[in-house]
Amino acid sequence: MTHPDFLWADPSPKRGYDVVVIGAGGHGLATAYYLARNHGITNVAVLERGWLAGGNMARNTTIIRSNYLWDASAAIYEHSLKLWEGLSEELDYDILFSQRGVLNLAHSLPDVREGVRRVNANRLNGVDAEWLTPAEVKKLVPIINTSQELRYPVLGATFQPRAGIAKHDYVAWAFARAAHRLGVHLIQNCEVTGFLRDGDRVTGVETSRGTIEAARVALCAAGHTSVLAASLGFRLPLASHPLQALVSELLEQVLDTVVMSNAIHVYVSQAHKGELVMGAGVDAYNGYGQRGSFHVIESQMAAAVELFPIFARAHVLRTWAGIVDVSPDASPVLGLTPVEDVFVNCGWGTGGFKATPGAGWVYADTIAHGRPHPLAAPFALDRFTTGALVDEHGAAAVAH
Amino acid sequence: MLSVPCPWCGPRDETEFRYGGQAHVAYPDDPATLSDAEWAEYLFMHDNPKGWFAERWFHTAGCRRWFDVVRHTVTYAFEAPR
Questions:
Q1: Quick check: pTM over 0.80?
Q2: Shortest Cα distance from B38 to chain A (angstroms)?
Q3: ipTM of the prediction greater than 0.90, yes or no
Q4: From residue A266, how far is each of A223, A269, A279, A286, B17 by CA, in Å?
């Protein structure tokens, strides 16, 4: 048996590039792909300190949805969802995008009011959304416990039918192969250790594989963006937290949609292979250790077993953590920085995977033109000075 | 689970505490004179280092007092209390 062909090359860095993207996760790879595809900028390197898509891209729970409350959020996430809908064809790679729908459960009267309000807001923004009664939830998800005797009974749910999941590794590999075919260099084991400057401008990066010149530098490092910004001399409104997730052993198909509950705090889907994939909120403390505390796992398991009594017999196969960069308003920071020719895409917190194609699209446009893409403009860094926050905390079924 | 060194009660389980973020962020001396940029710095732009970090914890299920500790954000080790 021969080894299958590599999907992308493993080049040594050139002396310089038009754009250097720091971080070869989903967002970095998508950004490089759209720089080449949409803007003809192919002299691009994506630098990765570890291996390609080995950070949060390998650790997330792959939920894709666009049912956010505010107009700015709905616009960018819906743009992303529309790209997901054509992505397998666009990249000529089956990424197992499955529009199996996402439920966000309500467990209290305030939850119900928030949910109904969000359904209406979504519809006004052209995002598909429905309000389901407990009986309708039970019909859609027969294994869910809708007994009104529970401490936190299911009182209804929002439902976005077009939402779903995709296979995260395939997404990364598909973008990597497509970017490589357009001439992008994907350079692994290449940690950025500093920046080259000419006055206020940045002219390149120092890396573990030598100096690389760059006309423009695009930060795309999720939980480590603050570290890069600190070496550039500015601060970002981010706190890096561990976000844990877990999978069960492989089981027969029992769940064919995605169920999220903020109030008792668990979200769960069943992957194509059969494992139950679960996550919840971040660990409370700042951390870069890619591991969290056990009580966080314990409480999300308790929530899952209350909602799905048959899960009590499932075994946890493994747990892990990624490092997510959480912003004060639970919205991303996307655009220009105080340093000329340096751009930033960060602050996606616990929800960056769903934005992969959309963020890559608008970030590439922002880098190519040196000004914010219209969908990125509300997410500029200066909103923390003007006060025009996009406050999605609790407003968008976001659980942090 | 972290074992958080409360200076009043000794080491206790993390679940007894609330996390308070970066320590030593002083309330502005003269808030009325602050510019928008200075407010943004005070409210939102906190340090987020990979390494030693001075931070606040609140012992909600114990003595109910705030305290500062220095913790490493990669190893999660607490500096020995002085």
A1: yes
A2: 8
A3: yes
A4: 22, 10, 6, 21, 22
